[in-house]
Amino acid sequence: MIKTAFPDTFINELVARNDIVDVVSSYVRLGKKSGSNMFGLCPFHSEKTPSFSVSPDKQIYHCFGCGKGGGVISFIMEIENLSFPEAVAFLARRANMPLPEQENDRESKKRARMLALNRDAARFFYDQLSTPAGDKARAYMAGRGISKATATNFGLGCAPDEWSSLEKAMREKGYTDYELYDAGLIKKGKNGGYYDTFRNRLMFPVIDVRGNVIGFSGRLLDGEGPKYLNSPETLVFNKGSNLFALNLAKKSKSGYILLSEGNIDVVSLHQAGFDSAVASLGTSLTPEQARLISRYTSQVIIAYDNDGAGQKAAQRAIGILEKLDLKVKVLQMSGAKDPDEFIKLKGPEAFQMLIEGSENQVEYRLGQIAKKYDLSSDAQKVDYLKEAEDLLARLPNAAEREVYCRRVAADAGISADVLIGEVKARRSRLLKRTAAASRSSPEKQTQPVERQYRYSDPASAVAEEGVIRLLYLDPALIRRGGLPTKEAFSSPVLGHIYEVLCRRLREGLSVSADVLGGELESGEIALLVDLLQKPETLSNSAKALDDYINRIDRRRRETTEGDDLLQILEERRKELK
User: Fold this and answer.
1) Is residue 292 helix, strand or coil?
2) Cα gap 499→354, rounded to integer Å
């Protein structure tokens, strides 16, 4: 099914004006070269060794780790979470190109309408702050030391302590109850009516890096209910993929992102001059949020609450962030439970000293391990060394391993050489286990990296991939007779790619990854790019195509004959009963 009516000529010009290296470089640090290709750390999954490849010649990207791939439009769709038409519009704005007339895209219109609704709701909440309905919210902000300028900077507002004030205001603007419900701004009542989701709350609009209001977080002012309430998942809002205040923090010149737990902490930090502070939205840090952070910085300072839960959350965040090769430090506060309280008690200068003296993640984790044991006890000392040894063995840098081995050995009062030897042996065992786990069976290696697609007949699928690859690389082969139908393909996804490819080639249309993105799903484009990475000899492409087709026919006959035999055996079994 065709997803867009953009003409090929427009898409081709759009791609020509948006060089994939330039576009990708604004999100990924590309450096290492292999031939003409450039490599960087994949923005779509966590990795320390670059496996994300960008080809300036082919104008495509491909990750050998997670399987993502496509052209510049597919990249923007994935990284910005946009539909195909929205990604085209995004790149058109970037290249200052007017969009041609096109068929309406229902999802794009729905997204635009929801974003407009969220913007109007944010304005409503903001306006309420200066009315009598905002008295409690203003008193709360005064008590927390939040200035009017800071409130304006963050667009803070107030949800009145009423059942349907927002619903009424938005209906007057022409929005329907269905739209309000779909955006998570109202809920269904037991008697069939609707009521406002946010009531009696200080409102924090969640704004994405493009400046769109995508959702809300509300802090209860008094009475019963959850302390913080976030918008539900919607078409435009996914709390695990966004960060509060990143729209402001991305402009910081500090050189690091300050990761805190709560909205109030972030507001207080920005007001005190720490303008790189962000917070996750009611959840612990997710890999998606970490990858979002990695687009804007190479260093993260964790400033979580100074309690057991905060320390556990910090440990988990370290594990996620270090997979992206980010430099991670952990800020430890004494005499205050969180950054907001610390700044109020000791001032911004003291907090700046905390930042400057923050521990790197290895020091922090070793310190957390040491706190669990009494090193005056030989038995506990052994347990401490075992746990520390496991952490040290996983450090990728040899010099770093030796430095910390010597520090741990000194703390435990043992020979550094002994610990270095133990860590070396443990690391060797870990690497062997990892290597063994990564070795897959030949059948598994033929399966697509994208787990949503599985080949029921890998032997046939390899030949089906070959047919697609040859037609893509040598379009003249479409004029040969004897090409199989898509029904001959054992893999439905390969059959669909093949069908679209054949139709476009027969019509003399372009088959670039970007143009095909208008008809294929992002996962199908990634699969196509992946199979195009595999070697193929074009010196005798016609014979190679015949060989692939014969292999598909042979596998189909074998499967059919096997099915017939099973049917005969089943019928014979029934007769004998």
Assistant:
1) helix
2) 61
Whether 293 contacts 278, CB under 8 Å: yes
Task: For residues 128 and 195, give the distance between their C-alpha atoms in angstroms, rounded to a whole number.
Answer: 18
273: left (phi over 0), alpha (psi -120 to 50) or beta: left
DSSP of 350-410: HHHHHHHTPEEHHHHHHHHHHHTS-TTSHHHHHHHHHHHHHHHHT-S-HHHHHHHHHHHHH
Supply the pLDDT for residue 104. 54
Query: In the numeric block, which tokens belong to residue 458?
Result: 């890998």
H, E, C per residue of 444-509: HHCCCCCCCCCCCCHHHHHHHHHHHHHHHHCHHHHHCCCCCCHHHCCCHHHHHHHHHHHHHHHCCC
Q: List pLDDT tens digits, range 386-440.
A: 999 999 998 888 888 999 999 999 999 999 999 999 999 999 998 888 666 655 4
In whole angstroms, give the CA distance from residue 363 to residue 358. Answer: 10
Closest alpha carbon to 303 in 266, 275, 335, 273: 266
* Dihedral class, residue 326 (left if φ above 0, else alpha if ψ from -120 to 50, else beta): beta
* Dist CA 424 CA 429 (whole Å): 9
Closest CA to 245 of 218, 220, 270: 270
Q: What is the DSSP string of 211-250?
A: S-EEEEEEEE-SSSS-SEEEPPP-SS--GGG--BTHHHHT
Give the integer Cα–Cα distance in Å for 282 and 264: 12
Pairwise CA distance, residues 468 & 456, whole Å? 18
pTM of the model: 0.73
Sign, CA dihedral 209-211-212-215, equals: positive
- Please give the angle made by the CA atoms of 123, 126 and 127, to the nearest 5 degrees: 85
- Which residues are CB-neighbours of 135 under 8 A, at least 6 positions away? none
d(CA 563, CA 252) in angstroms, rounded, equals 65
Helix residue ranges per DSSP H, 42-134: 72-80, 84-94, 106-128
pLDDT tens digits, 525-537:
999 999 998 888 8
277 vs 265: CA distance, rounded Å: 8
- C-alpha distances (whole Å) from 283 to each of 71, 232, 316, 324, 346 are 33, 13, 12, 20, 28
